[in-house]
Design a protein that fits this description.
By secondary structure, this protein is α+β, with helices and mostly antiparallel strands. 38% of the residues lie in helices and 33% in strands. The radius of gyration is 16 Å and the shape is globular.
Length: 186
């Protein structure tokens, strides 16, 4: 079950899991998270099962879109279908919303091992009925190129998705990072 948490509990999650689960260049510092959570720009959910925490997700809601900013399963709970359960509960919690997330593009991986990991991640989301949006790409300066994936409750056009992603980034990212992000149609 997904349980929404406040910033006080988030601090523990950040120190115990997020700093281990995501590289420093992929996550904001605790102060930036604090602002995003306290200003209601981002929501944080812990996934619990059998009275134990097993994973988490951070989302941004914008109109009829949910952007999954972070999703992770605790190391000791991996391989138990927890990520799939988190996505299922998000779909149930927001039945009228399209759910969008970023995945690192396998074509720009540094080596074969990283390419395989990225391809596995895409297959995981595809099993939950997410589709790659082939017409859009997110480029974070020269660091990484992302593909977008969507679980769509109704057909969307590329211009609308492009517009929503720009608005989502403007909602949660600081100006310095925004300058490094390019949402482009390909």
């Amino acid at each position: 079950m997904l349980r929404k948490i406040k910033f006080k509990e988030f601090k523990k999650l950040y120190r115990k899991h997020i700093i281990r689960d995501f590289p420093k260049n992929e996550r904001p510092n605790l102060e930036r998270f604090r602002k995003r959570i306290l200003e209601n720009k981002e929501e944080v959910y812990i996934f619990e099962e059998e009275d134990a925490e097993k994973g988490y997700t951070l989302i941004v809601k914008l109109e009829n879109y949910i952007f999954v900013d972070f999703l992770a399963t605790y190391k000791e709970s991996r391989g138990q279908g927890i990520g799939t359960k988190i996505l299922k509960e998000l779909k149930e919690k927001y039945p009228d919303c399209n759910i969008i997330l970023e995945v690192e593009d396998p074509e720009f991986a540094r080596d074969e091992k990283e390419k395989t990991i990225r391809e596995k991640r895409i297959k995981f989301y595809e099993k939950s009925n997410f589709k790659i949006i082939k017409e859009l790409q997110i480029k974070y300066s020269d660091l990484v190129i992302f593909k977008l994936m969507i679980f769509s409750v109704k057909a969307q056009n590329i211009e609308e998705i492009h517009d929503k992603m720009k608005k989502i980034y403007n909602k949660v990212l600081n100006k310095k990072i925004l300058k490094k992000i390019e949402v482009k149609e390909i």
